[in-house]
Amino acid sequence: MLITGILITIVAIFMLLVPQFFMKLKSPRIPDKLLKNPKMKIILRIWGGIFVIVGILLIVFSSM
């Protein structure tokens, strides 16, 4: 659970910092119209923030 928490936290931090990378992944295919929408970056950053919290909680609970 500790390793999973660390991996989730690392990926989520990258999602917060570089949402464009995750938007350009091919699976699932996102239409170009959505890729150019600035709200999509905000949504990815919100998801990244949620996953950072989940990753930190996994790390904390695994160390108890």
Mean pLDDT: 84
Cα-based radius of gyration, to the nearest Å: 14 Å
Global outline: elongated
Secondary-structure element sequence? HHHH
Poorly predicted parts = none
Number of distinct beta strands:
0
Q: What oligomerization state is this entry in?
A: single chain
- Note the total helix count: 4
Strand content: under 5%
**Helical proportion?**
over 70%
Computed structural class: mainly alpha
N-to-C terminal Cα separation, in Å?
A: 11 Å
What's the story with the biggest beta sheet?
Answer: none
In short:
Helices cover 80% and strands 0% of the residues. By secondary structure, it is an all-alpha fold.
Secondary-structure blueprint of this entry?
Elements (H helix, E strand, L loop, with lengths): L1 H16 L1 H5 L8 H4 L2 H26 L1
Structural notes for this entry:
With 64 residues, this protein is mostly helical. Helices cover 80% and strands 0% of the residues. It is built from four helices and no strands. The model has no long low-confidence stretch (mean pLDDT 84).
Structural key phrases:
80% helix; mainly alpha; 64 residues; 4 helices; elongated
